[in-house]
Amino acid sequence: MGIRILLTLVFIYLLFPTWGNAEAPLTAAFIRDHQLWIKKGDEEIQITKNRYVVNFPKWSYDGRFLAYADGDEEGKKSSLFIYDTSKNESYQPYIKLEAFDFKWSQIKNQLAYNARGILNVTKMKNGRPQGFENVALGVSGFEWFPNGKEFIVSSQSALRPTGWGPIPIFKVPVDANLDSNKMIPFYTIKTDTPALFAIDADYFKWSLMGIGLVF
């Protein structure tokens, strides 16, 4: 039997805070046959077995942790897991946690994730991200600010008798803890059916210097 073709291959290079340590070996994470693997030099190491890994695996700030989602073929399930490279083990930051969208802070090993419209961030326990704190409700899409202390957050448009309403976008601090007074209006996308039709906004991308924002 010939070599099996890689169906999904995603490389995420481990970059250190200096972004330029030439002597440090690069480590890559990738998905093969819906299992999570890492590659160190010429060595390939299988991390998961009998799972159905979906979404892109994502490295933490310092490269110690790797977040990934264990799902199913129908795309109805997505359980969040974290692989700890120092202990060579996977764990769930919170038991029975389902999340399709998750992102690491740029300044520390804190993971943010959207769990059915609730934006949460992980707390730290025994030196690794575990447990959670609520940030905001009604979240459709989100992204960290480059400073790692705030989020850009969108909320889905509401359907009205006259059509779809505008899409509100907010600036939310990490420690908002569901406090509506800390949800600062950032921008509003006006919907104009059918010239511009959308009910939410996502895939926020900052410019290299963290000044401009595209979504």
Summarize this, please?
By secondary structure, the protein is an all-beta fold.
Topology:
Layout: E1 27-32, E2 35-40, E3 43-46, E4 53-59, E5 65-71, E6 78-84, E7 89-91, E8 101-104, E9 111-115, E10 118-125, E11 128-136, E12 141-144, E13 150-154, E14 159-160, E15 163-164, E16 167-173, E17 184-189, E18 205-206, E19 213-214
Antiparallel strand pairs: 1-2, 2-3, 4-5, 5-6, 6-7, 8-9, 9-10, 10-11, 12-13, 13-16, 14-15, 16-17, 18-19
Q: Can you write the helix and strand succession as a string?
A: EEEEEEEEEEEEEEEEEEE
- The secondary-structure class comes to mainly beta
Number of helices: 0
- Calculate Rg over CA atoms: 19 Å
Largest sheet: 4 strands, antiparallel
Task: For the record, give the distance between the C-alpha atoms at the N and C termini, rounded to a whole number.
Answer: 45 Å
Report the uncertain regions.
1-22
Strand content range:
35-45%
Give the overall silhouette. globular
Mean pLDDT across the residues is 82
Helix content: under 10%
Q: How many beta-strand elements?
A: 19
Largest sheet strand order: 4-5-6-7
Overview of the structural elements:
This protein has strands at 27-32, 35-40, 43-46, 53-59, 65-71, 78-84, 89-91, 101-104, 111-115, 118-125, 128-136, 141-144, 150-154, 159-160, 163-164, 167-173, 184-189, 205-206, 213-214. The protein is mainly β and 215 residues long. The protein has a domain at 143-171 and 182-215. The strands form six sheets. It has a four-stranded antiparallel beta sheet with strand order 4-5-6-7, with no helix packed on it. A four-stranded antiparallel beta sheet has the order 8-9-10-11, with no helix packed on it. A hairpin with a 6-residue loop joins strand 18 (205-206) and strand 19. Mean pLDDT is 82; it is low at 1-22.
